[in-house]
Amino acid sequence: MKISNKKNQTSIDKATILSKALPFMQRYEGKSITIKFGGAAMAEINSSSSFAKDIVLLKQVGINPIVVHGGGPKIGKMLEKLNVQTNFVNGLRVTDKKTMEVVEMVLSGSINKEIVMEINKEGGRAIGLSGKDGLLAETKKIKSSFNNKSKDLGFVGEPKNINNQLLNWFLDSHFIPVISPIGFDKNFDSLNINADTMSGKVSSSVRSERLILLTDVDGVLDKKGELLSELSLTEAKKFIKNGIISGGMIPKVETCINAVSNGVKAAVILNGKIQHALLLEIFTERGVGTLITK
Q1: 3-state secondary structure the chain
Q2: Could you read off the pLDDT of 138-153 as tens digits, one per residue?
């Protein structure tokens, strides 16, 4: 059977793409990459499917992905449906006991299993867990400053210790951990953790080659609205101080700064709504987001 020139060229183009990806596969083989899958990016059906395929491919070529997910929009919808009032202080949800029950139900019970099944459907072996499983994330309560006063956020915390033994077991196995950002405190109460913070702590604990924050924006923009493809730690801190980096981008960049300062080789902020954003970032020379390095 004779193959048409057009089909033949298409096959050659595909083979060329794969050959160009080979050096990047070799660079990351056997290393871990921690990926934060944000709530806004998760809302896109096509993005979720594309994300799952990317995760399975990474594992297939010898890279070890660790997924940490958010879920703010779905939590908000459920709280509204149940007529539970909620508010935010500096981007963090004030979480009382009733709100915490809903947050845990949505994150660990609904969203986590949806992501797990999406990955498994594409041929992966994902296992869902929260920071409570295997005592993964020992967490301490945090407060926030509002109008120069300390504000109690309720059941909100940040990890103070990550169970590396459990994570390393996953990295040495065929399984892909999918982590919901719920931790436990000294009294074994559940605490709500910001997903960016959780992913940063997880990536630092296993010294991931990359921390990738998938969000709904292209990355860090300059004063003209142009994408900054790369930032050093010094530049990132300077841009926060002078206001170039502002609003909701500040905690994301601070997460990247902390991760890179604590053993992660580099961190990336990119738009998770782009089809196969992970593959474009990892297997191409320039990537598609903002890379933050030492």
Answers
A1: CCCCHHHHHHHHHHHHHHHHHHHHHHHHCCCEEEEEECHHHHCCHHHHHHHHHHHHHHHHCCCEEEEEECCHHHHHHHHHHCCCCCCEECCEECECHHHHHHHHHHHHHHHHHHHHHHHHHCCCCEEEEECCHHHCEEEEEEEEEECCEEEEEEEEEEEEEECHHHHHHHHCCCCEEEEECEEECCCCCEEEECHHHHHHHHHHHCCCCEEEEEECCCCCECCCCCECCEEEHHHHHHHHHCCCCCCCHHHHHHHHHHHHHCCCCEEEEEECCCCCHHHHHHCCCCCCCEEEEC
A2: 999 988 766 667 778 8
